[in-house]
Amino acid sequence: MSDNSEEQWKKIIGLGASSHRKSYYPELQEQIIELKRKNEELQAMNEELLATEEELHQNYSELQQRERELMENRARFQEVLENSIVAFFKRNYQKDTYEYVSPAITGITGYTPEETKEFTVEDTYARIHPDDLVSIKKNLQDILHKGGGKGVDEFRFRHKGGKELWIKEIYCIVVDQAGDLLYSIGSIQDITEHKSVELIAKKAQEKLVYLNNVTIQESLNANYALTGYFELLKELNTDDSLLPYLDPIHSLIEKTGDILQYAKSYQDLGSKNPAWHSLSIVMLNAISHLDLSYLSREMKLDELECYADPLLEYAFFTILENVVLHSRKATHLSLRYRENDDSLSLIIEDNGVGIPAEVKDQIFEKSYARERGMGLFLVREILSLTEISITENGTPGNGARFEIRIPSSGYRFTSSD
What we know:
The structure is a single chain. The termini are far apart. The chain is an alpha+beta fold. It contains 12 helices and 13 strands.
């Protein structure tokens, strides 16, 4: 409002300089000022509301976009579930039913998702081969003992049509604070064809092992006979000029025999499936083949089990044999374990002279084995089949220290009850 306009306004309402009524309305000017202030506040609030409306409109547009993206992702995920050869599930153990089973289950077991949802645990067990139930239940108890976690089972399952098929189930068990089962989520896959190929390969492997056994045994027999003939030749020899040649021949015969013995051990490597072994029993069996009576022993292995090749006992025997053969002045042998964040270390330690620093990295290598024997090379190969590693990290002069590192999936503790 201009100065002239405001002056005219004051005259009209009796507040102008020439007005005779301005002394009667002093509070009117204050009311006008208050009205102008409130008008400004209303204008500010209106601008704020307009800005809020714009922000809400923008947020609503973003929400609509995210909703469309969510629906598209859900449709893609549903398409994957419906066309996958792997069935996914969620089992509620409190209600003893499946909360969700994907459509792929019909192609695998013959049962529809609706039929499968009605299966109780006992209904499912009734369709599994009895010989496989033992390991399934044991794996479940092991996971519960750890407070939940992941597991893998392979088992024979009776199809709705009556045929038998092999199933691979990968799952995760969730428990409550009391350790009781809540639910599991996982996947189911038909591995019947894979098992058939595996069976054929196993039979071929068995035949190959048999052929190798026959070949190696016949070669060893020939080597024994050659040793006998050599000793007879040495006794009957009267020509001194032949003596310088006899010792090298004898060395070659012995070396050939050693190579055949190691070949016999090595060809058994991986020929049988890995299994769970009680380390206390394996160690005691290994020790029983050696004279360790001169050593004081400390063994703290509790109820520890290890998943390894059946040649595990041979591996520990070889390590302990090295103590006997090379740990001069040793008087004590220690066998213990230490749990790490993602593994377990099994430690075999003596207080002998130890292993020189310059050969620590070589004793497990094939090149070193050719010169000194195949023992520790074979040990490393046996352990590596199940992702177990071995190192020697003792202090030279204070004794040898073999540390065998077992991955978290390769060890467990069992109850003695």
